[in-house]
Every structure is written in structure tokens, then in C-alpha cells.
Amino acid sequence: MSDPFVLGWEEWAAFPGLGLPAIKAKVDTGARTSALHAVSIEPFGREDAPQVRFVMHPIPDQPEVEVVCAAPAVDRREVTSSNGETELRWVIEARVKIGEREWPIEVTLTNRETMQYRMLLGRTAILDDMVVSPTTSCAQGELSWDLYKDFPRKAQVKRPLRIAILTREPNNYSSQRLREAAEARGHVAEMINTARCTMAINALSPAVYYDGRKLPRYDAVIPRIGASMTNYGMAVLRQFAMTGAYILNSAESIGVSRDKLYAHQVLARAGIGMPTTAFAHSPKDTKNLIEHVGGAPLVVKLLESTQGRGVVLAETRKAAESVIDAFRGLDANFIVQEFVKEAGGADIRCFLVGGKVVASMMRQAAADEFRSNLHRGGEAVKVRITKEERAAAVKAAKVMGLGVAGVDLLRSESGPKVIEVNSSPGIEGIERSSGKDVAGLMIEHVENHVRTVTRPRARRGAAAKKAG
Ligand SMILES: Nc1ncnc2c1ncn2[C@@H]1O[C@H](COP(=O)(O)OP(=O)(O)OP(=O)(O)O)[C@@H](O)[C@H]1O
Ligand SMILES: [Mg+2]
Ligand SMILES: [Mg+2]
């Protein structure tokens, strides 16, 4: 019997077909599938022969070394990683070379930026005649990062981006400003009406169609989805995400912020200050509901409400009971909330981009009105927020997972109280009152998240021309 092929607990590997001459892999018999670091993953190619293209940074401490790889896509699969999180990953087939041996394996693509090894060799990639030695490092010899010395470094040029603004209101201030800001920075921005998108749900070649025509691949999608389209809009967004586009607010985060009961639970769980809030389903619980928030005066809010329309102040217990009973009679979903009187009919809108408050305004209600909504005659003025208010806003956007958010809070005796987190905050009021270029900051945020990838296709084409 010949000696077995020994793999150490770590090995140098190569993927000749992917153009990767060296990569350091951790051998992990505890993991089923192998995984490879990949960013900017993007499906392409014919529907009957789908492929994925991705960007690889093989050298952990030299991110400027960037290799663009392409491989046949064989599957998309739910994979649970060691931290317990489940992720839908692309699966490719590629030939790995370790020492003198070369064989085909299946590899899932995932962002391993924060991991020590850019590759994990799982047990399904280890053949019958191989053994793993837990005490040996690099049993099959070493390769060197020098193999990348002639590779081009990451291009510094900023290429124009193709951005989709997903909205049903292409003519409103926010949509127009976003397009302007994108164009001012040399990008192409297109308004896409959510309601006119159709989707072909095909695991390996996802696409979004618009009036029957297949949309191109966008570098980024900025969702401006109104409450009436939340579910469909989220589905469209998920589809865009599968095409590899960067989504400014993910479908999941929009879903959390739109589900008001859930949003309140998420905020409370994170220890964020908010008015005492109660909700109930059974009509027998009216008295309990009122007790839960400490009695009248209290605020009753219809969950489907926007622009302050379904927000009612009940000044006495009697009034509270009749409002609650009336909403019940209409089969409406609502919450009951402690009335923060000290707020004096004002709330503060913090506009966050990329986890930072970039602008804020105070909305002061009209006389005889406790609701500060601009649609209810409220007036927007510039405001300096406190450190505590800033921290609450940052935390609220973070726990909701929103890249762009409008966090509304009330100034109370016991510190800031968050009342809602908006995933498509309007840009007009905040730009006018703060004088800041908020739309521009949103586009800048997109630029920072979409990598400047040098496309190998173009280079290859140029080389071929030269040779011919
Ligand atoms: N618990 C409260 N105590 C005091 N005032 C409140 C309270 N809740 C809301 N308000 C006031 O009523 C306004 C409307 O409430 P809220 O923002 O919750 O409703 P909305 O209908 O969702 O409005 P939006 O259009 O911002 O989504 C707030 O901007 C605030 O001024
Ligand atoms: Mg609201
Ligand atoms: Mg509001």
C-alpha cells in the first residue's frame, strides 16, 4: 500500500483555474464544505451555464492585491458558519492544487475578511486516500506571496457607478435630489418604479425585469419604498441583492422598521430609551393597557399611521377608553403609549447615514397641537442635539440594521425617548432646515461601499487585440 497523502492543519493551496497561484487554507474536518473569501459576488453568463464573478484578496494584510475570479456556479445553498449564522451562499466548482495533487472541489463563497485564513478546506474536499495530521503545518510544502508580485494592484481610479433609485415617486424632492447628487458625482442614476418590476425567481441567474425588459446590473440600489409597497418592495430588493448590487437599506432592516410592534421590541431589547408602550389584542384588556402606561394622559397610535394621522392624545382615562374602544371596533392595530408632555409638542429628527448623524432638525407643532409632523403644520428648525441624543439615534439605527435612517426622538425629563425609526426618511425638510447636502452624503456612502473593481474582461479584450 502506498503512503497516504498527508494534509497538515494548514496548507498552501492554489486554484489554477481561478488565477490564484497561492492561498493559505485552514484544514477543518469539522466543517462540511470548503469556503473561499469573496467580495462583490456577481452572477453572470447564460442561464443554462450560470457563472459567478467575485473579487478575492488572497493576502490578508495586503488588500490592494485584488484578483477577479470567475467560475461555474453550481448551487446556492444555506450554510451555517461556526458563529451559528446562516447565510445563503453561492457554490462554485474549482480545481484546487495542494502539493503535487490537483482535484475538483466544491467551494462556497463568503466574506472572510475578518478571518485569519482566506480559505477553509472542509471534509468533503478531502479525498478517501488523504489523511489530516493535526500536528503538521504545511505537509505539502510552502508557496509564497511573491507569486503575486506581477499582479496589478487595485485600480485607484474611481469608475462611474450605475445606481437605481427604487421609488414610486420619481418626481418628489427626495428622488430628484438623489439623482442630482449622483449625477453631480459622475454616476448614472435611474428611477425604477417598484410596482413595475417583475422577477424571475431562478436560483442561479437572478434578474429583475422592468416592463418585460431585463434590467442591467446595478452597482447599488437606493430603496425609497413607501409603506404601501413594503412587502413587494422588499422582495424586489432581495432580488436586486442577489444580482450583487449593494443595497443601501437591506430588505430585512426595512422589514423590521416597518413592523412597528417588532421595531418597538427591538429598540426595547437594546436598552434604548422610549416612551412606555403597550399593545394588546383582546378587547377585554383595555383597562390593563391603560394601567401599563401609567394611566392618562396617554397617546394611542394606529400602527398603519403616517404623517401623524392616526395619532391621538387622550387626556383623561374616559377619553382613553373611548378611543381604544373605537379603534377596536374598527379592527385596527394600535399601540398605547405614555404621553411625554415635557416634549412640548416638539420632536427631533436625526438623519443618519452610515451609522453617523449627518443632520438633525427639531419639528415644533403648531399651536394647540401635540403632533409635530410637518404635514400637521409643524415647523422645522435647526437644532443642536446632545451627546446622549446622538448616542440614542446611532444605537437605534444600528440595532435596526439601517444604513440610512431617520430616528425620531422626544426630549423628556429622563433623557431622549425614541418614538420611531424611518427607513426611507424624507430629504427635503432636513436639507432645508440644516442646509446640508444630505443626498450627496448618501451617494458618498454608496461610493465607499461599492468597490472600485478593475474588470478583467476589458483588459483581456485589449490584450487580445494587441496579439491579433
Ligand atoms: N408618546 C408621545 N408623547 C408626546 N408626543 C408624541 C408621542 N408620540 C408621538 N408624539 C408626537 O406626535 C407626532 C406623531 O407621532 P409619530 O411620529 O409616532 O406618528 P406617525 O404617524 O408615525 O408619523 P410619521 O409620519 O413620522 O411616521 C410625533 O412627531 C410627536 O410630535
Ligand atoms: Mg411613522
Ligand atoms: Mg413621526
Structural summary, described in words:
ATP binds at residues 301, 338-339, 347, 371-373. This is Probable alpha-L-glutamate ligase. One of its GO terms (cellular component) is ribosome. With 468 residues, the protein is of the alpha+beta class. The chain folds into four domains: 5-148, Cathepsin D, subunit A, domain 1; 162-257, Rossmann fold (3-Layer(aba) Sandwich), CATH 3.40.50; 282-338, ATP-grasp fold, A domain (Dna Ligase, domain 1, 2-Layer Sandwich); 342-449, D-amino Acid Aminotransferase, Chain A, domain 1 (2-Layer Sandwich), CATH 3.30.470. It is built from ten helices and 27 strands. The strands form six sheets. The protein has a nine-stranded mixed beta sheet, with no helix packed on it. It has a five-stranded antiparallel beta sheet with strand order 25-24-23-26-27, with helices on both faces. Strands 13-12-17-18 form a four-stranded parallel beta sheet, with helices on both faces. Strand 26 and strand 27 form a beta hairpin. Helix 1 packs across helix 9 and helix 2 (230-242) runs antiparallel to helix 3 (251-258). The two termini are 52 Å apart. One magnesium ion binds next to loops.
